[in-house]
Amino acid sequence: MFENLSYSQLQQYWWIIISCIVAILSFLLFVQGGQTLLNSLSNNETEKTIIVNSLGRKWEFTFTTLVTFAGSMFAAFPKFYATSFGGAYWLWIAILFCFVIQAVSYEYRKKPSNLLGSKVYETFLFINGSIGVFLLGIMIATFYTGSQFKLTGNFKQVEWLNPFHGLEAILNIHNVTLGLALVFLARILGAQYIINTVSNENIEKKAAYQVKINSVLFLLFFISFIILLFSRPGVSIDNNGNAFLEKTKYLKNMINSFYIIIFFLLGVVNILLGIWMTLFTKLNKKSIWFSGIGTILTVFSLFIMAGFNNTAFYPSTADIQSSLTLQNSSASKYTLIVMSYVSLLLPLVFWYIYYTWKAINKKPLSISEIEQEEHKY
Description:
Structural class: mainly alpha
Shape: globular
Order of helices and strands: HHHHHHHHEEHHEEHHHHHHH
Radius of gyration: 21 Å
Largest sheet: 2 strands, antiparallel
Number of strands: 4
């Protein structure tokens, strides 16, 4: 089956897989977004505990998907893994730290006589949901804006050309727009998820208000990111494998691929529809699914655009010929074939996530239910 595919087709297949993972990860950041709303949505400790337990039932999904993304990049495109994880390690360490303290917080927040106290762990959750998501957005943006690295020794050695090792990406305004857009989108999704899973009039009312406020900020930064993306040059690869700058490369990628345009427009429309449902209809408990599907389609279209159409998906701003492409950074054909057979198990994984999601969320959480809960986060 996969043996009949060419090397190039296998590389493209795996970029599609990774784009799906990043898109799903972006949706699952609703957990992080909800964590930043704990104090905004609750009037007392009981209401806060309801929200934390609603989010706590899903936090492993986000963490696991992030690890899956890193593992997939390592296996399918090891040159990127070596370059980004090996060069921009301070950025990755900061992201990892933000997600580690999330896991610790859910485990120990309600432990009797915990060392730090619940307020400290709630602060950790806020850091994970704000700084962690922001840095993740910064990292994703570097797939378009690039980083300062140079590959030498026949592409076997990575030289990072600044002492900040990834943290310099925070100073790029284009990166910042995506980082902030992702933070406010996560807060929108988090509020919608809480509306969907919590049965408390006060919390639901405040969550709807947060959707309204954060929607304005999300649209501001998301539109700014798109304008900057479609107006910036990108690194193209000619038939001889040489890299060169091409004006409005990402805009051309979208225009030349009708399916990317369709996914992108459907995604944006669904996000806006989800926001509208939350604010102006009685179907607000269903809005998370529209915004969630919209997020997946939008991110998928933008991410897949970064690697297709002879585009360098990780440009080098120091040496353009060191820019990483699907062709020069992927694993061997044999490795991609073996991994492709393993990828056939993904539908089973998605089914398991769906099954456990439905089982966990059989009915919305309420004060009476949380009081009867034996295990509280």
